[in-house]
Write a structure and sequence with these properties.
By secondary structure, this protein is mainly alpha-helical. It is 74% helix and 3% strand. The chain has ten helices and three strands; from the N terminus they run H-E-H-H-E-E-H-H-H-H-H-H-H. It has a three-stranded antiparallel β-sheet with strand order 1-3-2. The protein is globular, with a radius of gyration of 19 Å.
Length: 229
């Protein structure tokens, strides 16, 4: 098989599997059988194995024994550790950004993403909202202009996206929830435009506190506790 075609199949498998993991179509802790993946994605064994290796490197897939693959579990500890890390990670990002002369291009991108999310909200396309929310926060991290931040930010927001899908389940009013997030985003953008980093930090902490409270509430769901100890 020509190298370009083989790489194309690997990319197809990788992107498809990653999408299904991030959106919880492949559930946390689920075993991924090679035959199932080949049938579900429509590629051969070799592209599947190479894609799985890439996802293992990103921390989304775990391996146990020969050719035994599992979606990384999303346990209570994982969720709490992620929320704690995001809080401190934001502080690092904003401290680094405060010494940069200009991050107007990132702010413009944040405004574009905010408009896309508002449109998705109007159409009640919550799946699209969550996908773009991940990109919003990854773009927010770019204001640090720091290579070391860039090396970890995608993996962090892969996990954040899975958590966002988990926490969106069972909402009595999804629209109210996502409207709250859009107001948080608008506040972050406004403070960034003013280069008021104390204001940015305070807005970000309010944003995470809201998510943290929802996590606490969700953790008391009996099903989640029983299945994710």
């Amino acid at each position: 098989m020509p190298r370009n075609k083989r790489q194309s199949l690997v990319n197809k498998a990788y992107l498809s599997m990653k999408e299904k993991i991030l959106t919880l179509e492949y559930k946390p802790g689920e075993k991924l059988e090679e035959k199932f993946l080949m049938s579900d994605i429509g590629v051969g064994r070799t592209p599947i194995r190479e894609a799985v290796r890439m996802l293992i490197t990103e921390g989304l897939v775990k391996t146990s024994g020969t050719n035994s693959y599992y979606v990384k579990d999303l346990s209570l500890k994982t969720c709490k550790d992620l929320m704690s890390f995001l809080l401190h990670f934001g502080d690092v990002i904003f401290r680094l950004a405060s010494v940069n002369d200009d991050f107007s291009s990132e702010v413009e991108e944040l405004e574009k993403l905010s408009k896309v999310m508002n449109h998705a909200l109007e159409k009640e396309q919550y799946l699209e909202f969550i996908k773009h929310n991940r990109q919003f926060h990854m773009t927010l991290g770019k204001i640090a202009r720091n290579d070391y931040v860039d090396t970890v930010i995608e993996n962090v927001y892969n996990e954040e996206m899975r958590l966002a899908f988990t926490l969106s389940k069972g909402l009595s009013s999804q629209k109210d929830h996502f409207e709250k997030l859009t107001s948080h985003h608008a506040e972050l953008i406004e403070q960034l435009k003013k280069k008021d980093f104390e204001g940015v930090r305070a807005a970000y902490q309010r944003h995470l506190s809201y998510g943290g409270q929802r996590l606490i509430n969700y953790m008391f769901d009996t099903t989640f506790l029983n299945n994710n100890d």
